[in-house]
Amino acid sequence: MDIQYNYKVVKYFMVTSVIWGLIAMTIGVILAGQLYWPALNLNSEYFQFGRLRPLHTNGVIFGFVVNILMGTSLYIVQRTCKVPLFNHSLSWFVYYGWQLVLILAVITLPLGFTTSKEYAELEWPIDILIAVIWVLYAILFFGTIAKRTVSHIFVANWFYGAFIIVIAMIFIVNNLELPVTFWKSYSIYSGAEDAIVQWWWGHNAVGFLLTAGIIGMNYYFIPKISERPIYSYRLSVIHFWGLVGFYTWAGTHHLIYSSVPDWLQNLGIVMSLILWLPSWGGAFNSIMTLLNNKPKLKHDYIMWFFFSAIVYYALATFEGPLLAIRWFNMIAHNTDWIIGHVHSAALGWVGMSAIAVFYYFIPRLWGHQQLWSNRLVKWHFWFAHIGILIYAVALWIAGIGQGYMWLQQEPNGSLTYSFVDAMNFSSPWMLARFIGGVSFVLGLLLMIYNLYRTLKQPLAAVSSTEEVNDHAK
């Protein structure tokens, strides 16, 4: 008997992820422009950097990333467990509930309703809604696993399960707050305690939303696009337990040289350094899976997106432990180097992975086996790749320069360089950052056009002339 999988809600999540990705990253380009041309604030309290920046980060994390993770997880859990979703109505409740969260964020953040906590800016009524929707999502996901008709739980579902459980736990703990009015609250924590809990959340929002969830997605789709099994299934399981075991302890490397106790800072340093091993082991596993089909890798630009994503993953998981080392932290922390690191991971690892999944998965969800134009995928790859390199390298240079200038002192103890001197040094790199961001977003527009034309084709249609020519080349 054929299993009636629920793909409709998956389609909605995927399309919504594309839309939020374009919106959030366009806002990011506007913010990059404002840093170089302050007049782009338009002298408006609603359009200035401080109001738009949390809209950008929340749009990327909760709009772009969470939608693609919810969509792919609900697809993969059905296919690998060989059962339909636990409850179809619940899946739609999760979808529309999550979009309500995002709409409320779009309204409240520009109006200035914010807790001011990194990646946790949304106020308490929205936090409660997030917690409720997230628990329902967990019930839907784990309920489907409980119904499975196979004994084995595929490794992708382990990563998705970890991301669901850990995010629920740390989000609720970090957002415990006392309401003052309907749109204002204060955290129950204060001082160093507040910083510790906040970066337990902040670092692991990256570690489990932007890392574990994306890894789970890739462990399913990289073998699919490669037409090869995972290079080492055992290594993928070691990768899982390594991340789960060490990542949650690493957040205090954000608090080096602070009033947080030294032993806690050192714990974050040690755990960050240990994370090199499972992270690079997982990167090696995915790279080898792709390399197991070298003939296809030579011409398939979707595989190139995945390959680049893994390279950026290895780079980002090198930069994080590097920042945890005290001598480097002293130079780079609180500079634009951090922004370069975050975006080499967010655009390079998460962005390139998501783009590869969009290209491979969305046409197949609608019954198409080929894209309208492989040539546009090639153009997109180079727009995205060059954009990330310009963006990240510019901010690495700006950050190291800022750190060096801020540490220089005269013999009498006064600072050698003023804050304005450091900003003047950074100015051309802010322009480069803007150019890199524009290049990346232009690539997204090419992708959306290509996917639109793909889905508009009749299902039985032969590939377009351009597609045939692309394959011939």
Automatic annotation (TrEMBL):
UniProt EC number: 7.1.1.9
Main location: membrane
Protein's membrane topology: Multi-pass membrane protein
Pfam families, per database record: COX1
Name used for this protein in its record: cytochrome-c oxidase
List of residues binding Cu cation: 203, 253-254
Reaction catalysed by this enzyme: 4 Fe(II)-[cytochrome c] + O2 + 8 H(+)(in) = 4 Fe(III)-[cytochrome c] + 2 H2O + 4 H(+)(out)
Keywords: Cell membrane, Copper, Electron transport, Heme, Iron, Membrane, Metal-binding, Respiratory chain, Translocase, Transmembrane, Transmembrane helix, Transport
Cofactor dependence: heme b; heme; Cu(2+)
Lineage: Bacteria, Pseudomonadati, Pseudomonadota, Gammaproteobacteria, Vibrionales
Chain positions recorded as heme b 2; high-spin binding sites: 341
A GO term from the CC aspect: plasma membrane
Gene behind the chain: ccoN
Enzyme class: translocase
Subcellular location(s) of the protein: Cell membrane
Keyword DNA damage: no
Ranges in a coiled coil: none
Note accompanying the cofactor annotation: Binds 2 heme groups per subunit, denoted as high- and low-spin. Binds 1 copper ion per subunit, denoted as copper B.
Residue positions binding heme b 1; low-spin: 56, 343
Pathway this chain belongs to: Energy metabolism; oxidative phosphorylation
Cytochrome oxidase subunit I profile domain segment(s): 12-473
Any one Gene Ontology BP term: respiratory electron transport chain
Spans through the membrane: 12-37, 57-77, 89-112, 124-146, 158-176, 196-221, 233-251, 263-280, 301-318, 338-362, 382-407, 427-449
Signal sequence, renumbered to the chain: none
Family in the record: Belongs to the heme-copper respiratory oxidase family.
Gene Ontology MF terms: cytochrome-c oxidase activity; heme binding; metal ion binding
